Every structure is written in C-alpha cells, then in structure tokens.
Amino acid sequence: MKLLRQMVVHGYPDAAPIKKDAALGPFATGPTSRSWKRKKASMQIVSSIHGVPIRLTWERWAHIVEARDELAGRMQDVLAAIETPDWVTRGYRGSLLAWKGFGRRGFLVVIYKETSAADGFVITAYFTRKSSKKKKVWPK
Q1: DSSP letter string, 62-96
Q2: Residue 112 belongs to domain spanning
Q3: What's the CA gap between 128 and 38, in Å, rounded?
Q4: How crowded is the C-beta side of 66, counted as CA atoms within 13 Å?
C-alpha cells in the first residue's frame, strides 16, 4: 500500500488510483478526482511567531506522512504548532523548531524556515518525548 501510494503521489501513470487515503488528511482524494490537480497544487498557510507566512504544500505534507505515520490526520495540529507554539528554538542552517506540548505523546516539533519577511516553508514535523530548550529564541 505504501509503495502504491508513493507511485500515485509522484504521478506514475501505471499505478492504480487510490480513491481515499486518511493519511493525506484534507488531500485524501486520488488522481481520478476532478479536483485532484487543484488540491495537489494547493497549500495551507499560517503565520509564524514573527508574523511570517509559512506554507505547507500538499507534496511536503505527503512526504512527512510517508515517513511518520503517527502524523496522519494531524495537519491542523502541525499548523497550530507553528501559529501558537509553547516555545521556539533555533535549528540548523537558519531553521526554526516550533515545540508544542502534546500530552502523553510528548511534544510535537515542527521544523520550518523563514526565508524572508514575507515567505517561509515547513521542512518536517515529528513527535518526541525529549524536549530541548537550548538555543531558545521565543519566548525569551
């Protein structure tokens, strides 16, 4: 199933179409849907703590869910972690890590990059039980 989903997501014409896939969240319709091309190109945009619009594209979301099944259906949680994090730390090569407490699961971490004052994008997201407040940039 995972390989078939990859084939459809990456546009292989010989792959059997997948009608619904809960892991893709709001982009769950397959390539046989009339609105599939529009959804494939669509994206979700939220503002970071600095007021920078951060985009999460369909392709990036599919890539994140492919690697981390526990994030299936949690797109809104990922976007909420960027908008209202508990704290933010500095990552590698100018990236930022938004940390959000998530009960017994631990913490939801969303790595994103602000490329300018008017643009940014999500790199990845994951759950972890260990928190880190080293290199904390917000709140100070």
Answers
A1: HHHHHH-GGGTT-HHHHHHHHHS-SEEEE-GGGEE
A2: 2-130
A3: 33
A4: 16
Please check whether residue 140 lies inside any domain of the structure.
no
Evaluate whether residue 137 is within a structural domain.
no
Of 3, 31, 38, nearest to 17 by C-alpha is: 31
pLDDT tens digits, one per residue of 49-95: 999 999 999 999 999 999 999 999 999 999 999 999 999 999 999 99
Residues 83-125 have pLDDT tens digits of 999 999 999 999 999 999 988 879 999 999 999 999 999 999 9
Q: How many domains does the chain have?
A: 1
pTM: 0.71
Closest CA to 17 of 65, 26, 28, 64: 28
Q: Which amino acid is at 12?
A: Y
* 77, part of any domain: yes
Q: With respect to residue 99, please indicate whether it lies within any of the assigned structural domains.
A: yes
Radius of gyration in angstroms for the set of CA atoms belonging to the chain, rounded to a whole number = 16
